[in-house]
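Researcher: I'd like a candidate sequence for this fold, 573 residues long. If you have to choose between options at a position, lean toward the conservative one.
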């Protein structure tokens, strides 16, 4: 047993993770510790690691001595030397997980810090240095990238300050390869996301909380590659193993993705819907968004406001969403044997679960969220009408409202009679159908309308007649109830309704129909969202009304039957 223990001790490798408390660094540290054959030196600019409850693996490693924490500011070379002295591998990822507008600070951390790391590795005789770069270094915010590979040059465009500085840092790392025995390599993950991410997902959430929540910027069809953070950590470990076995890997750079490109807004919608936000439905051209943001920025500068620019989130999302950015990972698959360990579907689920606390109190979540259908949903029939009036599909609802508004304008606000309006509408329909039929003769490619568009199925006819019969039966039952003269409550309701119609219909019919059109698309939705509150208020109102109705009914004159009975009793008396 003692010999086995000694053999295991010999197999343990020591590494340092600079930026180990950053987004990528945390995932890398945890994966290294889970492998079981690493002693990890976690270093970061924070004075203490401040572990979260979910980091039980790292806490156990600190307790057992398999991990140690070093306070390192990469702007000071001496602190780096203290952390990496005696290790064979250094993983370096800067901790700038969120956007920063301070150029000097970013330059000293990213560029000057990388110079210090490279110099310290050479001085301490470190064998391998792996740098976590970004796919942004070759993107210029102007041209699309489809299946880009490592032969693409740096963009040279200062569209993003951090990306430009990381391009310089990457060049410093690669240029130091095979000097003083140091082998270097760089990875370029694209759109890294996952639990604890502080850039991409907060951008989307901030945009969803703004007035831009309903808009799809660009065509919405632009493909993008995304990379789950654990896959990035796995790629670092694959690179380290390849550098140990094949020197030919050194001095190279590799793109890392999940190998599952998606339309950017599909990815964004999956995340936002998981957090309770509604899917954006209205497309805006990217140039329109940029013009609006430019004007807002001018006003913001003129106002000399010292607050954070509210357009930063929208601008950065627009930069990501308006261009296609997909990359080939064939080189990484071939040379470092990389393949994702977490699929895209699982990655999105894990990310949404980790950000579930952000879904509490969101402005676009349902107030009365429940898997049970609401009362108004049941009244509307749980079908297409309910989906439209309750805004389940906002695009379809808007189109239906627009169509009904046009019909309202045509029949009620045009000043024509109903018959003349109907005749002109039918004439317009016939002209459009004839034009649709004639245009293909002149070489215009228009798809033919199938005969099924003008047919009504037997099922729809049966349902229509069934609905009409139900309405007739209800009306018949109501009439019988009123004719018997015993249900005073129903009588007063019908009388009040007819009296209101008498006041409105002769003079305000157009206004009444317009109000009904607007209210049908608003009241149902509002009630569905705040059902419990409305029911509470309605309960109080109905109880007061019932007491008032009881008082009125009790003061009504008795029927003849009651009078005769009263007389007979009086006669006996």
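Model: Candidate sequence:
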């Amino acid at each position: 047993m003692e010999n086995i223990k000694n053999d295991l001790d010999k197999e343990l490798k020591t590494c340092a993770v600079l930026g180990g408390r950053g987004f990528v660094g945390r995932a890398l540290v945890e994966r290294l510790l889970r492998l079981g054959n690493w002693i990890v030196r976690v270093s970061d600019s924070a004075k203490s690691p401040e572990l979260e409850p979910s980091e039980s693996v790292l806490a156990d490693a600190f307790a057992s001595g398999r991990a140690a924490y070093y306070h390192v500011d990469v702007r000071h070379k001496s602190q780096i030397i203290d952390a990496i002295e005696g290790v064979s591998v250094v993983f370096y990822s800067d901790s700038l997980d969120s956007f920063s507008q301070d150029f000097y600070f970013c330059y000293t951390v990213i560029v000057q810090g990388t110079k210090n790391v490279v110099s310290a590795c050479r001085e301490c005789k470190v064998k391998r240095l792996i740098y976590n770069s970004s796919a942004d270094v070759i993107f210029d915010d102007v041209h699309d990238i489809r299946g880009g590979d490592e032969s693409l040059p740096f963009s040279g465009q200062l569209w993003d300050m951090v990306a430009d500085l990381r391009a310089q840092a990457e060049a410093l790392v690669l240029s130091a390869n095979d000097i003083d025995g140091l082998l270097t390599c760089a990875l370029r993950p694209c759109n890294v996301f996952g639990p604890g991410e502080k850039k991409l997902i907060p951008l989307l959430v901030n945009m969803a909380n703004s007035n831009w929540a309903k808009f799809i910027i660009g065509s919405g069809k632009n493909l993008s590659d995304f990379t789950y953070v654990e896959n990035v950590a796995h790629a670092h470990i694959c690179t380290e193993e390849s550098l140990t076995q094949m020197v030919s890997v050194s001095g190279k750079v590799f793109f890392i993705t999940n190998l599952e490109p998606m339309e950017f807004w599909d990815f964004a919608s999956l995340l936002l819907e998981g957090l309770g936000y509604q899917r954006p439905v209205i497309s805006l051209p990217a140039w329109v968004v940029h013009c609006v943001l430019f004007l807002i920025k001018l006003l913001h500068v003129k106002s000399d406001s010292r607050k954070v620019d509210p357009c930063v989130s929208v601008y950065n999302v627009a930069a990501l969403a308006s261009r296609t950015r997909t990359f080939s990972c064939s080189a990484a698959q071939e040379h470092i044997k990389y393949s994702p360990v977490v699929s895209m579907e699982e990655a999105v689920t894990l990310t949404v679960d980790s950000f579930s606390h952000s879904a509490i109190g969101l402005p676009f979540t349902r107030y009365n969220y429940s898997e049970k259908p609401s009362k108004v949903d049941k009244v509307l029939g749980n079908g297409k009408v309910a989906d439209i009036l309750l805004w389940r599909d906002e695009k379809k609802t808007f189109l239906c409202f627009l169509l009904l508004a046009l019909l309202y304008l045509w029949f009620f606000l045009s000043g024509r009679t109903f018959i003349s309006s109907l005749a002109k509408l039918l004439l317009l329909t016939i002209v459009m159908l004839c034009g649709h039929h004639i245009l293909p003769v002149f070489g215009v490619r228009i798809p033919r309308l199938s005969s099924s568009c003008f047919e009504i199925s037997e099922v729809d006819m049966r349902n229509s007649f069934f609905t009409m019969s139900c309405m007739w039966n209800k009306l018949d039952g109501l009439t019988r109830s009123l004719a018997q003269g015993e249900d005073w409550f129903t009588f007063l309701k019908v009388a009040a309704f007819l009296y209101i119609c008498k006041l409105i219909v002769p003079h305000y019919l157009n206004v009444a129909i317009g109000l009904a059109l607007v209210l049908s698309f608003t009241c149902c939705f509002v009630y569905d969202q705040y059902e419990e509150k409305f029911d509470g208020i309605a309960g109080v109102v109905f109880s007061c009304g019932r007491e008032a109705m009881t008082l009125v009914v009790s003061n009504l004159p008795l029927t003849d039957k009651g009078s005769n009975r009263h007389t007979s009793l009086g006669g006996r008396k």
